Amino acid sequence: MPITVVNDRVINGFNPRQLAEALNLGIKTDPRPPQITVPLLGRVLEAVERAVRQMPDEQLSWKAPDRDRPMNEFTYHIFGVSRRAFRGIVTGVYEPFEENAGRSFTRFEDVAEFGRQVVAEYKEMEQTLDLDALAQRGPSPGEDVGAAEQLDRITGHAVQHLRQLYFVLESFDCTPNQKLEDSEFPPEYVLTILW
């Protein structure tokens, strides 16, 4: 997971509320309600699928300078972590996540197909959710925050990774198809990418 250090404060994972507080951004840090995050996460996952389909297969093993994580694992991670989170939010049960499973993909098209399945599952689940009830639901066993904040975190996580994916695509001279712009996201989701 990402680790952010601001002075002496260590923030585990993508946590918009803690990041905004630590950076004194002066922006609203209450978790967004599911009425905002649920449709936004769906749009972001669809955008990730589109971007992954554009990735050139010769870059499957390319790694960012700051991580020992090849692109096949990175792209799988975006879908896999999101799926684990939304399933857990709905059921209260969080399945183990095998990060290295992404290394088994030998084509970005295969990662995108996995992503298409995740998007389809998400869209189906989205139709059955009672967003008002979800907004009121407290933490599941073993979790420190309620469903609304978990959705806010996973949506922010997916946005950050989508932005990284766009950056990588552009560095490979590919223009992302139907790119979602930073202006479409809450401000703390679009902190500057340092790569």
What does it look like?
The chain is mainly alpha-helical and 195 residues long. The protein has a single domain (31-190), classed as dinb family like domain (Four Helix Bundle (Hemerythrin (Met), subunit A)), CATH 1.20.120. 52% of the residues lie in helices and 4% in strands. The protein has helices at 16-22, 34-54, 71-91, 108-128, 131-136, 147-171; strands at residues 3-6, 9-12. A two-stranded antiparallel ribbon has the order 1-2. A hairpin with a 2-residue loop joins strand 1 and strand 2. The longest helix is centred in the last third of the chain and has 25 residues, at 147-171. The two termini are 16 Å apart. The mean pLDDT is 88.
User: Would you identify the CATH H-level superfamily?
Assistant: dinb family like domain
When the domains are counted, the total is 1
Percentage of β-strand residues? under 5%
Beta strand count: 2
Specify the biggest β-sheet. Answer: 2 strands, antiparallel
Q: Spatial order of the strands in the main sheet?
A: 1-2
- Can you identify the CATH class? Mainly Alpha
User: Approximately how much helix is present in the residues?
Assistant: 40-55%
